[in-house]
Specification:
Helix content is 73%, strand content 0%. The chain is mostly helical and 168 residues long. It has a single domain, classed as Arp2/3 complex 21 kDa subunit ARPC3 (Orthogonal Bundle). Helix 3 crosses helix 4, helix 4 (73-93) runs antiparallel to helix 6 and helix 6 (109-132) packs antiparallel against helix 7. The longest helix is centred in the C-terminal third of the chain and has 25 residues, at 138-162. The two termini are 13 Å apart. Keywords: Membrane, Transmembrane, Transmembrane helix. This is Rod shape-determining protein MreD. The chain crosses the membrane at residues 12-32, 38-59, 71-93, 113-133, 145-163.
Length: 168
């Protein structure tokens, strides 16, 4: 138990550090900024207390908002991701999720891709809809969501594969 808590703390600090000091300063083509910090929420233990997970998702988003001066949009997007995760797990992994038999490092690459893609895309959609907050710019928002999601999904899958023994 203690070892698992320590792993999650180290994972949180490492992903936040990399996000804040490296990825927040990447502005590819003027508007593409990957957000691999969501990987922390994606690989958080599936058997953890749901209330604790939602609270941690809020703190993760709040941390990003404090360092990014973004007014709460990351917290809202992370909370949406936290509420959507059980449905996505059921969709991506089916009966295995019901019996708590999922270990992300043991799942096929396709299963990981589906799980990560759905949650990253919805996180980014909420994030950018709140950022723009104007229906007349919906095409810009959808374009930014799609392109940024692609980069974030690629980074999350690469990080997950590279550090799968450490993540799980």
């Amino acid at each position: 138990m203690k070892n698992n808590v320590l792993k999650n703390i180290v994972r949180f600090v490492a992903l936040m550090f990399v996000q804040i000091y490296l990825f927040n300063h990447i502005n590819f083509l003027g508007y593409i900024n990957p957000y691999p910090y969501v990987l922390f929420l994606l690989v958080f233990p599936f058997t953890a207390n749901r209330s604790l997970y939602i609270f941690i998702a809020f703190l993760t988003g709040l941390t990003m908002d404090m360092f990014g001066n973004s007014g709460g949009i990351h917290a809202a997007a992370c909370l949406f991701l936290a509420y959507l995760r059980p449905l996505t797990l059921r969709f991506a992994f089916g009966v295995s999720y019901e019996y708590n038999a999922i270990k992300l490092s043991k799942v096929s690459l396709y299963g990981r891709f589906v799980y990560i893609s759905i949650l990253v895309f919805t996180h980014h959609l909420v994030l950018f809809l709140l950022e723009v907050f104007n229906i007349s710019n919906i095409l810009y928002t959808l374009n930014k969501t799609l392109v940024t999601s692609i980069f974030t999904i690629i980074l999350c899958i690469v990080f997950n594969i590279l550090f799968s023994r450490r993540i799980e």
